[in-house]
Amino acid sequence: MTSKLKRSASSRAPRIFLAVLLAATGLTGLAAYSDVDAQNTGYLSGREVDFRLVLGPPPALDSRWDRADQATVLAYQDVDQARWQAAKLDEQQLYARFAEAFGRPIDQRSSPTVLTILDRALLDVDATTSRAKDHFSRPRPFQRMYLRRVCDKDDAPEPEEHPMHGASYPSGHSTHGWAVAMILARVAPDHADALMRRAEEYEESRLVCGMHFPTDLEAGHIVATAVVAHLDASREFQADLIRARREYAGRSR
Question: Structure pTM?
Answer without folding.
Answer: 0.84
